[in-house]
Amino acid sequence: MWLDLLAGFGRILFPALAELRVKYPRLSYELALTDRMSDPVAEGWDIVVRIGELPNDGEMTVRKLCDLRLALYAAPAYLSQRAEIRSAADLPGHDTIVFRVPTGRLRPWKMADGPHIKELSLNPVLG
User: What is the pLDDT of residues 54-81, one digit of tens each?
Assistant: First the structure.
């Protein structure tokens, strides 16, 4: 079995993969941990795990595994030198990490700000 997993998610699954080997000792698998957007059909992967919107078309069977709750994180040393963050409106002046969508475009952050969901296009220090 060939598995292509997001690097961070794959590290979380290591214990489960070990348990899977104990339960099915004849099972062997090749594991790739990458955040690169692979082409599962062309590259021959059996299982691919990605984060994002589920595609509506294509040659794959797609299943939602879980919902993720994301949060904002910053080191205390960073926060001691920067303006306080009280709402989404305060974020454009802060250092951010922004991921890219498969098209290469930077993925905007979607944040709850009170009862509203706001989409923020931020300038990353790491993208």
Answer: 667 767 788 888 777 777 888 899 989 9
State how far the Cα of 61 lies from the Cα of 55, in Å rounded to an integer.
10
Decide if 2 contacts 46 (C-beta within 8 A): yes
75: Cβ contacts below 8 Å, ≥ 6 apart: none
Instruction: Enter the pTM of the model.
Output: 0.54
Nearest to 2 by CA among 58, 42, 55, 59: 42
Neighbours of 88 (CB within 10 A): 19
In this structure, the number of other CB atoms found within 10 A of the CB of residue 4 comes to 22
